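Postdoc handover notes: sequence design on the structure in folder B. Input tokens:
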């Protein structure tokens, strides 16, 4: 038996403090302390098991959500593949259109719209000049459609333009050649012959002139991309 104190002390209130005596054997106190430690460890284990359980539930939920997202993505992918299959022939159609456009460019790239050339010519004839005959002779462009496709310079010759006409004087022939040189579809105009004559009693000049037809005379309507782009 252990006696903590044998003295009687007075506290500030004047009440006597009785002696404290521990009558329990030391073994019992040690068992009690050991039991408290066991209870503490048990509570910690229970808490750890609870945390593990919560983590497991959370992980299970995350896996389920991921599986659901994967299933949704797979379904959407299948749907998109089905939609893409509907337009599988579009690429082939574009390829066919491009091939047809290429063939058309080769076949019609050298087209000259003579109706437009004659219209432009009629607007350029001087007042004192009458045209009696017109002829165009076109040669092959180095590569079919190349001049129009590559935007060849105006000086590229693709043919010859010949005119027979009548003027009142040689000066009228010179004015005629100047009017031809002002057109973008011709270059190097010159007269082959210019002779005086009579039309009834009126003095006239009969002339023949030639000029080179340039690549600007090509229509280019078959060398443009489909849709004008």
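Designed sequence:
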């Amino acid at each position: 038996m252990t006696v903590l104190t044998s003295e009687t002390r007075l506290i500030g209130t004047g009440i006597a403090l009785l002696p404290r005596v521990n009558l329990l054997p030391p073994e019992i106190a040690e068992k009690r302390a050991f039991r408290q430690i066991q209870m503490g460890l048990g509570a910690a284990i229970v808490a750890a098991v609870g945390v593990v359980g919560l983590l497991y539930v959370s992980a299970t939920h995350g896996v389920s959500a991921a599986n659901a997202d994967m299933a949704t993505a797979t379904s959407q992918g299948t749907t998109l593949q089905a939609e893409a299959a509907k337009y599988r022939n579009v690429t082939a159609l574009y390829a066919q259109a491009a091939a047809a456009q290429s063939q058309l460019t080769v076949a019609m790239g050298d087209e000259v719209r003579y109706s437009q050339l004659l219209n432009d010519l009629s607007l350029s004839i001087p007042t004192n000049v009458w045209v009696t005959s017109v002829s165009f002779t076109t040669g092959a462009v180095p590569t079919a459609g190349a001049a129009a496709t590559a935007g060849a310079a105006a000086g590229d010759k693709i043919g010859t333009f010949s005119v027979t006409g009548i003027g009142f004087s040689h000066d009228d022939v010179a004015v005629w050649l100047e009017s031809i040189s002002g057109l973008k579809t011709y270059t190097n105009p010159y007269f082959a012959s210019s002779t005086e004559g009579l039309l009834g009693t009126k003095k006239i000049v009969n002339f023949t002139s030639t000029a080179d037809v340039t690549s600007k005379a090509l229509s280019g309507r078959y060398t443009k991309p489909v849709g004008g782009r």
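Context for whoever picks this up: Residues 26-86 form the longest helix (61 residues). Don't rerun without checking with the PI first.
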